[in-house]
Structure formats: C-alpha cells, structure tokens
Design goal:
462 residues; alpha+beta; six-stranded mixed β-sheet; five-stranded antiparallel β-sheet; 24 strands
Length: 462
C-alpha cells in the first residue's frame, strides 16, 4: 500500500514537472501594416515602446522600400518610408499603434491558477513556451544497457540469492520499460555480470542490480519503471533495522519476521561487488566501466548507486564476499573482516571461552545467585498478599444493631422519685433514617468523584 502511494506521488510530481507553471510577463507591442506596400499586419515586441517600435521596423517585409524610425511614443511608432531604387521619400510621417500589455501570459500558453501553462506540444524554457523536442528520437532502434534493480538481500555474499520479501524484479522479454523518460524494449540478455553492494543501505539490506540489454523505441514516457529509476525509495526492512556487533542489518523477531525466498539470478551469473545507479550505466566512479557501469564514489547504498566502498571486493580480494571463497573479506576501511564463529553451523572460534565454574544448566542448579533467591522470596510474598483466605472480601452492609428485624427500644434506666422505667424507642423512625443517610451517602460520593475529576483535568493530566 505504501509503495503504491509513493508511486502515485511520483506520477503526480512528474505531471507537475511536465506542465510547470510559467510566470506572467509584461511587454510592449507595435502592430500594424502599410496598405499598398505590405500584406497584412505583423507585430514587434519589446520591454518598452521604443524597443517594440524597433522590432516592428526590423521586420518590415517589402524589400523595395526601406523604413526609418522618426520617433517613438507610448501610443505609436512614427517612421519614414523611402524608395530604395530612387532614394526618394514616399511617406514622411507614418504612424503605427503601440500598446502595453501588463501581466499577460507569454505566447503559446494559457492562463491558469497561479500563472500560465504552456499549451500542448510546448515546453517551458526560461519563462517562455517553446516547441517541444522529442528527447528520445535519437534512441530509435538503438541498443542500450539498462541497470535493473533485482532486489535486496540480507548479506553481501555473491552466493546469497535469498530475496527479502520474496521479491526479485526482472523484466519480461519483449516488455517495454520507461527508462529516464524514454521507452525501451527489454530482453533477458545480460551485457555484463550482476553487481551486489558491499555496503548496506539505511534499510540494513544489500542492493543487487543487473545490466539487461534493450532497444530504444524513440518514444517518450512519463512514469519511469521503478526498477530503472534511481529516485525509487529503498525497500523497507520488514523487521527492525539495528546494529549487532557494530554491523548494520535488517533483523527479524517473532512478531516481525524477515522472510526470504531463494530465487537464482537470471543467467546463473554470480554478482561482483558494486552498486551502480539504476537506469543508464555511469562512466564515472569505481569498478568496471563495462556492463552495469561504475559505482559512484558517493552514495548511501540505494538505487542512486554508491558509495565507493560498495565496490570493495570480498574474500581473497575478489568481489562478492562469498562465504565459500578463500582469504579474508576486505572492509571499507581496508581492514580484514573476520568470519563469524562459535554459532551452530559455524567454525569453532580460535579463542575458547573459559567455562570453569559455570553451572551446567537445568533445574535449580541455575538458581545460584542472590538475585534468584530474592526473586523467589518476592514471588512468595506476592502470593501471600493476594491469597483471599482469612480476609473479609465483602462489600459491608447495615450493622445488625440498626437492622429493623433486630431493632429494640433502648432501656435508659429508672427515674428516681417516680420510680418509673425510661425507654427510648427509635425503631419507629428507623426506615426514614436509613433512607436519608443513603441519599446523603450517594450525593456525597457523586460530588467527591466530580471534584477529583475536576482536579485531574485542571492539572493537565489526561
């Protein structure tokens, strides 16, 4: 989805580029003719009325008569007409109108929002609209080499044909590609060995390109084929880009795995070290000048090619960094790149780690540190704290002494003198007291909650 949006964005930008806005201009124009001596009218333009008058006189079409400027005004150009054969003056004071045009579109353009736009078959050049020239006509039926981005791998090894995301782009034989604005008929013949970058791009992956042969069609196109366009964004790492032992790479996890599909490079040729730009091979930089061309001296390992270290050879001074080769891999700084060791399937490291005193693993034998013991105690304490045994987990309720079924009048004793017992009976009003207290409890709880929410909102904590 993201790649489709990027492609649409590139097409939109290309459309704007092909129909760039042209600024409006201001100029003066002298326009007219001389009945009986010229056919029709013509115009002369200039930055001011004098310049437009001079331009009109310079375009005088009758070769038998000459014209000379007598004066120029803001509204007319005055001139003299002389017979070249006799030298006699035919007209001594002829005027042709002059007019100013302010903020208008230049010739061969149409006013649009924000300025002017060149008409069909016209291109913008220095603020003017000039006739379009087919830049691809010279390529008609001429062979050419096209650098095609095959895809991306996780290592720089020449034997690694495991393409990230399962993608390996190759042109279809006889298909038409748009290369730098020109149509090219492609075939699957390689004009040289493929090349693989020895420097990862910002996605932690290594770009692989191949030089395919093609035949120019002599026609223009607007949307470049992504595999031949040096401005195509690099492929995204499906996992995470990071460094392990100082080495940038694209690494996967269980949640975001980096899947690959093994597909051989067309023709079965092993790639050499290099990262030439997509599209037309470059003649400047490092590496071979034939086939895919040279690797630019600068760059970031992407589709625009480079850097020079991308063409630095692999094992034994050769190219590609094959793990089956001999010798050592030469890094970009010229130092030796040691082979990985110690992991399953790799050679034993020259320096073995002293494992004396290390637990063998399994069971409680690994729990030998104070940290493990402290963790066990913490877990035990947590289990005790969360055990509901012996704890009152009820929501509470009305005390038994205030329950209507258990309510009895209070005996306050016997009054002296009259020697009569005194009794206080609140049982008759108990239901009303419970209702009032319940109401007050609900109202108080509501306003307490409102107050807490107001304080939280006022403090800016959301």
């Amino acid at each position: 989805m993201i790649r489709a949006l990027l492609a649409a964005f590139v097409l939109l930008i290309s459309s704007f580029s092909a129909h760039a806005l042209v600024p409006k201009v201001s100029y003066w124009e002298t326009k007219g003719g001389l009945a009986g001596y010229t056919t029709g009218e013509w115009a002369g333009t200039g930055a001011n009325w004098v310049a437009s008058c001079d331009a009109w006189l310079a375009a005088w079409p009758n070769a038998s008569y000459s014209v000379t400027k007598k004066n120029a005004y803001t509204n007319q150009c005055v001139y003299i007409v002389t017979n070249k054969a006799t030298g006699g003056v035919v007209f001594d004071n002829v005027a042709v109108p002059t007019q100013e045009y302010a903020s208008v579109c230049p010739a061969n353009s149409t006013a649009v929002t924000g300025g002017c736009q060149c008409n069909a078959n016209y291109d913008e050049s220095n603020g003017q609209c000039v006739p379009h020239v087919n830049k691809c006509s010279a390529q008609m039926n001429k062979p050419r080499t096209v650098n095609w981005t095959l895809g991306w791998t996780r290592t720089p090894d020449d034997t690694d044909s495991r393409w990230v995301g399962g993608e390996m782009s190759v042109p279809s034989s006889g298909s038409t590609a748009c290369v730098e604005g020109c149509e090219v008929d492609m075939n699957l013949t390689l004009s040289g060995p493929p090349q693989k970058s020895q420097v990862p791009a910002a996605n932690g992956l290594y770009r692989v390109t191949a030089p395919f042969e093609g035949l120019g069609r002599g026609k223009e196109c607007t949307a470049n084929t992504a595999a031949t366009d040096k401005s195509t964004p690099i492929k995204e790492c499906p996992g995470y880009v990071g460094e392990i032992d100082g080495k940038l790479g694209c690494y996967g996890t269980a949640q975001k795995p980096v899947t690959t599909v093994d597909k051989p490079i067309p023709g079965g040729a092993a790639p050499i070290a290099g990262n030439p730009p997509a599209g037309t091979p470059s003649s400047s930089g490092v590496g071979p000048s034939t086939g895919a061309g040279r690797t630019p001296s600068s760059g970031t390992g992407g589709n625009d090619g480079g850097p020079a270290a991308a063409a630095t050879g692999g094992k034994g001074g050769g190219a590609g960094g094959s793990p089956s080769g001999t010798g050592s891999t030469v890094k970009a700084d010229g130092t030796e790149q040691k082979d990985p060791c110690g992991a399953p399937g790799q050679a034993q490291c020259n320096v073995k780690v002293d494992e004396k005193g290390t637990p063998e693993g399994g069971g409680d034998g690994m729990k030998t540190t104070a940290l493990d013991q402290a963790m066990d105690k913490a877990v035990e304490g947590l289990q005790k704290a969360t055990n509901p045994g012996g704890m009152d987990t009820s929501w509470g309720g009305i005390p038994a002494w205030f329950n209507s079924e258990a309510c009895t009048p209070w005996q306050l004793g016997t009054l002296p003198i009259i020697n009569q017992p005194v009794t206080l009976n609140i049982c008759v009003i108990q239901p009303y007291v419970i209702a009032v207290m319940t109401f007050l409890w609900v109202v108080g709880t509501f306003f307490a909650i409102v107050g807490m929410v107001a304080r939280v909102m006022g403090s800016g904590v959301h």
